[in-house]
Queue: 4 jobs
Job 1
Amino acid sequence: MVAVTAATPGNPPGRQAGAADVIVVGAGLAGLEVARRLAAAGGAGRILVVEAGPDAGREHYRWADEPARADARWLDPAADPHLWQPYRRTDAGYGGIAGLRRRLGGRSLYWGGVALPIEPWALAGSWPDSVVADLTGSWRGGPPLYESVAAQLRQWAGSPAGAAQPSHPLVGREFAEAPKAVRQADQGGRWRAYSPLDDWPDSVELACDSHAVAVQVEAGRVTGLLVERAGERQLLGAGRVVLAAGTVESSRLVLQALHQVDGSAPVELPGLADKVAQGFMAAFDPAQAPPSVKAFAESGRLFVSRADAELRSSVFLRCYLNEHGLLIVDCYCMGEQLPGRAGRVWCEPGAQLPWPTSVAGGLSPADEQLVLAQRRELRRIHRELCLEAGTGGAEPAFESAFGSPDLAERLGAGAAMTTAGSTATYSFPIGSEQHESGTLPLGGALLDEHARVRAVAGLSVAGPATFPRSGAANPALTILALAARLAADLAEELADGAPDGSTGRGPGTC
Ligand SMILES: Cc1cc2nc3c(=O)[nH]c(=O)nc-3n(C[C@H](O)[C@H](O)[C@H](O)COP(=O)(O)OP(=O)(O)OC[C@H]3O[C@@H](n4cnc5c(N)ncnc54)[C@H](O)[C@@H]3O)c2cc1C
């Protein structure tokens, strides 16, 4: 990066005119995919991705580490130096393992690869019709985005071209293997999920260790981005900025930008939603295990029964033999937390940038109802399994409070079980599913249907912050589909109008 002067009162930050035509904030799943797609479309001029964290290697953590160490990196906040919570917590939500992974690649180097579309019942009525049509009907005269992006992921993973998985009936539900954008190593239990870094175009510049402090807005238009690197601040000139810094950081950056246009703009965004996720593990004697479950155990894979509008929860099932010779059934519901006022992001405005940011991650009464409905379904599934096996077994016992503070130990319970009939339960504290979304919904008051911030020309948002509702599905497929859509829209806009001149020196690379 070029030499800059520290930004202090009376000593404005160094200005680098025309640093890029488009700056993308955040080198995670959404930001990298937008940049990659934009570069592929051509004609966008200079694209720069600004990332707060370092280039700490471009490998997925399950590829870089052996399984036990990788488990620790996921489940022990102290085991990953990149875990980052750039906000103040005000309740039990968004602590522990929740948060960003501040490094080049972001959580694209951590995700599990489960790629499911948001269910029709969650899209209908809440998402703008034009976006639903692009995702599920037809996009730009071709196949719908969900179909083309899923095909791209299958191709990357080397899976067969056909999408449909055979369905297996169990406990009154239909289960199919969960679609995963994953490549397996030949041995050692290592695997990796898709990251846009795997197919990274040289033409896109990456600036690591560069924290986006604020979007610069003049007369209602984006003119650049204020970044801090090694304690020094610099204004990077650009006419277009895409915020893809994760839901909470993107929310802060939008709130700050809105205030530059209107000093009375709100400083709080409701709608922050993660997932309601909980499950049980049960041990069976393999000789007596339900025959249908044995078939699942042989494959060792993850199966899913898709969510309906009533339970609003996917049911996942994984069966395996533990080292004590018991067949473990791990069954969990992952359901939709409804966006509302219980989850929110807000800032304390002031002269000092960045504004201090807080989150609340509570359960609304509707979420509490979902917790109870999931528990009824999980107990029913366990009962049915025991009936089929002709064995008894302790009914899964859930604590009254939702969100296991000792999640890591509970997730390890199945592997440690020594007695058939044992059960254990777990629930993910809000935020720890890492599916936080919903503060800047597409087609809402702040964002139009193309993810442009209505009040600030040149500013767009990518990532799950833009989901009007998240349904029960894991978010990545939708993140990637919307990234493709945003990149194509941006490329078209830039081709229509002259992008800002790009005259300055590059800001340095990772
Ligand atoms: C262990 C794990 C398993 C998961 N499994 C799945 C799964 O199977 N399926 C699924 O759909 N989802 C899964 N997820 C969730 C998924 O990874 C996230 O939903 C997704 O990565 C979010 O994408 P994003 O681009 O919004 O955020 P991120 O990928 O987190 O990227 C945000 C980036 O922005 C950077 N940043 C933030 N603030 C600033 C700033 N001010 N300046 C500059 N840079 C900034 C961050 O450092 C980060 O690199 C999983 C997540 C984890 C952690």
Job 2
Amino acid sequence: MTTPAERLQTPEGRSRLIKHFEQSSIEKHNDAWNDLWETGSSNMWDRGKPSPALIDLLEQREDILSPIAANGQRKKILVPGCGKGYDVVMLALHGFDAVGLEISSKGVSTAEEYAHKELQTPQAYNFGPAWANKFGRGSVSFIQGDFFQSDCTKGEKFDLIYDYTFLCALHPEMRAQWASRMADLLFSGGLLVCLEFPLFKELSHPGPPWPLQGVHSDLLAEGGDGILYPPKPPQQAGTGSFERKWYIKPERSYESGQGADMLSIYARK
Ligand SMILES: C[S@@+](CC[C@H](N)C(=O)[O-])C[C@H]1O[C@@H](n2cnc3c(N)ncnc32)[C@H](O)[C@@H]1O
């Protein structure tokens, strides 16, 4: 039985994505993602189903993540770098108005096609053991755009944002901008839910996926730049735009992160 770290280090699993991005400057990374979609290479990161860890959080911790706001309206959730849209659809099936954002137009059309089929006959993988259809369905929509452009959602802000394998897909130099865009896109008091992956990879190793051990709290709670390798003196505590409210080890996660992934939930100050 191989561990997640060992699997990532197989020549096939590890080096294709890394080499692809090493060949282009950071300014060209949007094009590099587009190329991967256009050449049918999304299987390099596609897990084939929504996140078991997020499903369990939604179904078991309504105290944290109810889809209905105090005024009775559905909450709006954004999934940046949503890929094929598994989580966007699953979130709508759990009652949220869910929006997926993707840089690639091919990614968006793939997600739209997936959502169209999946909403007609949702597969069992969208629901966990504690599923009870209490809230009905929310809406699903997709936006083609660059997360780092201030007008990418046409000024719309969100109650919640979910990040899985979006931060780890970005070059470390983009991390401070990632945190600042997250702060811009959330209402005050809004929640940023991160399924932290990969935490088992050494900080000195290249990505994508870039290793993230300690990176979320540095960026979001401490106000650091999230670049933790090579090591440097600790930041002044608590100067970030977010406060970490929950830090949960999920019982179930994707096989690639099972036993290592953490769910962190940050509130926008
Ligand atoms: C590693 S994939 C993860 C996809 C998805 N979260 C999943 O779990 O399948 C990263 C995704 O982010 C998208 N992406 C990269 N840079 C982006 C940007 N600046 N704005 C929006 N999407 C971006 C890529 O096209 C790709 O689909």
Job 3
Amino acid sequence: MTKLYVAQGACSFGAHVAARELGLPIEFIKVPLRTPESPIHKVNPLGRVPTLVSDSGEVITENGAILPFLADLKPEAGLAAPAGSVERAQIQEWIGFLNSDIHGAYKPVNRPNLFHADEEVQKSIREGGIARLRDLIRIVQRKLEGKTWAVGERFTVADAYLGVFLRWLPRAGIEIGSEFPGLAAYLERYNARESVKAAAAFEAA
Ligand SMILES: N[C@@H](CCC(=O)N[C@@H](CS)C(=O)NCC(=O)O)C(=O)O
């Protein structure tokens, strides 16, 4: 059986949601992060989630690979689009933007200690990170203007992944309702999905 390694509240939530949308027999394994005892190290040498182990035992890492791989397990679910189509490219465009720009922008916000040992310097790194994140979320809001979902008016893996970073906004002290009203309804739609509720409950248990 395909196995998907996830951690509570991590970026693996997008793959977790996508996998639950498919309703396929996939085993979810919750692991702790950043501890040498975590079983994730036996599967992924980088110790990161998401990590997927296919039916045939092949290990796949990186959201950019796992999200489309999951969608392609059941094309009729419409979580991606056929290879070579414009929609497929737009879904990949979102995944690339979220993976590099948005996830990257959270690094100085969540872990400023990676950039400098001095706590005062860390504070300003975090503040600069929050300002940069706000700018990028403004772009997301503009891209979603007048749309129900990111691509093709249906929920795709781009949305499964985007929702993760909107759910993280309070960590940066960003209140979506007052600062990004255009995204609040999107996040409500995301949070209302059965897949999202089930993934959140599994991770919290
Ligand atoms: N580029 C990777 C990043 C994955 C990643 O950084 N995952 C975090 C959770 S959000 C993690 O596992 N961190 C543990 C660590 O860095 O030790 C991807 O998009 O899959």
Job 4
Amino acid sequence: GPVVAPRPGARVLDACCAPGGKTAHLLELFDVDLHAIDSDAARLARVEDTLTRLGLSATLAQGDATERDWWDGTPFDAILLDAPCSGSGVIRRHPDIKRLRRPSDIAQLALLQRALLDNLWPLLKPGGTLLYATCSVLPEENRDQIRDFLARTPDASEQMPDGIAWGQVSGAGRQLLPKVDSHDGFFYARLVKAGR
Ligand SMILES: C[S@@+](CC[C@H](N)C(=O)[O-])C[C@H]1O[C@@H](n2cnc3c(N)ncnc32)[C@H](O)[C@@H]1O
């Protein structure tokens, strides 16, 4: 919440929203016009259930965030990209990840994350904020992904508000490693678009 911190009424996109934990959290923290998409219809139905149960509302749509056919053409003040990833930061809660993932998955996931970043960035207003996040501890999905994005995107820069202290600096983002009796592995980078 404090890392995105959208102003009241802001038009916000939650680009990979299901099952909706962060969608609900954003709506509980901020009075925003939230648009939430996910490519998986069954998982999106869980977002709808969660919002209904909590008495919250957002505009939900099934959509592929590497495409734009779901977009109405109006740019966003803020985008949350909680990207599909290896889940390497949450293995203790989902030990099957260790058995199911193949080394080749990481390069494929990195390509998908790259496509998501490149497709969503133009949908952001000048001065807008994109928060990239994964529950991974692998540099290919995190530090290196954001380093490469910044290198090919001249109007993007990393900007973290003062007082945000979670995780250790990892390139242009922050990496949290799993801790006993505490949080999972997680990465986030706050990217701001030039030109306002
Ligand atoms: C890490 S999960 C999101 C978790 C969610 N933000 C939350 O806090 O509950 C990643 C999501 O991305 C979705 N996804 C994968 N590829 C996608 C794509 N191309 N476009 C949109 N959503 C996608 C998956 O279906 C999955 O629900």
